[in-house]
Write a structure and sequence with these properties.
Blueprint lengths: L1 H24 L5 E8 L4 E8 L8 E2 L6 E9 L5 E4 L15 H4 L11 E2 L9 E3 L7 E2 L5
Parallel strand pairs: 5-8
Antiparallel strand pairs: 1-2, 1-4, 2-7, 3-4, 4-5, 4-6
């Protein structure tokens, strides 16, 4: 009996090891981190996104538990924090597909194009926005 159990156990161990090696060898889809703002909860946070994922804004926020999160920018001139909805071309024939004014965020308060993505300090999950309202900037197609 003991002689039959030992080969079965060895086969199971070998199969488990092979499964583990194969799982580690298969490349995982790379991810990147987006910085978003929840316009309802007034919190800036990071969200990991798999490369190739189609994102429709707004996305769900872990803070308000509703679809109130957008990409966030901060104006370097006046300090305004604002949400920006990127323009998504309708296809290769879209006449606005290469329009830089639709692709670049512009401060809704002072009109400056000098904007940055706010940085969340190391070790923090979010930062609170200290302004009465967070404007949502959507590109206007002419």
């Amino acid at each position: 009996m003991k002689e039959k159990v030992l080969p079965v156990i060895l086969i199971l161990i070998i199969l488990g090891a092979i499964g583990f090696i194969v799982k580690r060898a298969v490349p995982q889809k790379p991810t990147y981190t987006m910085v978003l703002v929840d316009v309802q909860a007034k919190k800036i946070f990071k969200k990991p996104v798999k490369v190739g994922t189609t994102i429709n804004y707004p996305v769900e926020s872990p803070y308000s538990k509703s679809k109130t999160a957008y990409p966030v920018y901060k104006c370097m001139k006046c300090g305004e924090i604002f949400a920006f909805v990127p323009y998504v071309p309708k296809g290769p024939e879209d006449p606005n597909a290469m329009n830089p004014e639709l692709m670049m965020p512009k401060c809704p308060k002072c009109g400056a194009i000098e904007v940055v993505v706010p940085e969340i300090p190391e070790g923090k999950e979010y930062i609170d926005v200290q302004q009465p309202e967070i404007p949502i900037v959507k590109p206007s197609v002419k």
